[in-house]
Design a protein that fits this description.
Trna Endonuclease, Chain: A, domain 1, flat, 46% strand, single chain
Length: 50
């Protein structure tokens, strides 16, 4: 998938999550082990979205 299409898909995923009361904590979080696309919080639980 091209980077532009990937960004559009991530934007739509974030919109979907916000509509369901998730708080976006971070997007495209990089570590030495790899990347997590979206990190969200809801009811004191962290969720990792790929």
């Amino acid at each position: 998938m091209s980077r532009a299409k990937g960004n559009i898909a991530e934007d739509r995923a974030c919109d979907f999550l916000r509509e369901r009361d998730y708080t976006i904590i971070e997007r495209n979080f990089y570590t030495k082990f790899g990347e997590i696309d979206i990190i969200v919080l809801k009811e004191q639980v962290l969720h990792f979205v790929e």
